[in-house]
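Before surveying the methods themselves, we first show a specimen of the format, giving the amino acid sequence and backbone structure tokens:

:::
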Amino acid sequence: MSEVCEECGGAGMVLTVNAAGVRMARACVCQRAARTNHRVVAARIPLRYQHCTLESYETSFRGADPSMRQAHLTAKRFVEAYPVDTDGRGLLITGPVGVGKTHLAAGLLLALVEEKGAQALFFDYRELLKQIQHSYNPQVNSTELDVLRPVFEAEVLVLDELGAQKPTDWVWDTVALILNTRYNDKRTTIITTNYEDRPPASGGVTAAQRATREETLGDRIGERMRSRLAEMCVRVEMMGADFRQGAGRARFG
């Protein structure tokens, strides 16, 4: 049996008197908490990252790269500035595996939901593309638009691991549709990627050169969309060793 709120008695609203002596109703703290919890659930943060907050993001461990501390500070300032000073801009969080990009993005999402009341959505890039492809199956009762509509309309979208899917013309077109739609609607997009965000080499890159160097974000999503991200997002570059190979390694007990 659930407990009844002592403040509102379960009604969800509380009568108060403002400075002018006018009686008015306001939502009870229990009602506000319930709404926040509903928004957190609707954000679909993966179970592994549901505990990740900006407060729990650790940057003081031995060997932590200074860029991690700067990224953490940028994330907290972003939450403080949202939504007026951010004006539809998001963050592009780049860096190698294991430096905490997804933790930071999930913490950002939770803070924006809990502190700013944002309607948010978390999507792994590969999982999103898989769901879109699955909608083409005639036996499935969903369409491409059914999958994409919440992605288009989310006030804040976290797109995790951008570029992780092998690039094809269809992948590039789909990424372009998502990013351009959100750009045109000035909706906030927070992106993480393992690929370096750097311009192509002067004079272009041959197929042979591309095969012998590390791929960039432009290689994975196309240079046109990489350029679009420069308008949509403030870049946050993180460096450092893979945390999961050290302190974050799986253990028993």
In short: The first helix runs from residue 29 to 42. The chain has nine helices and seven strands.
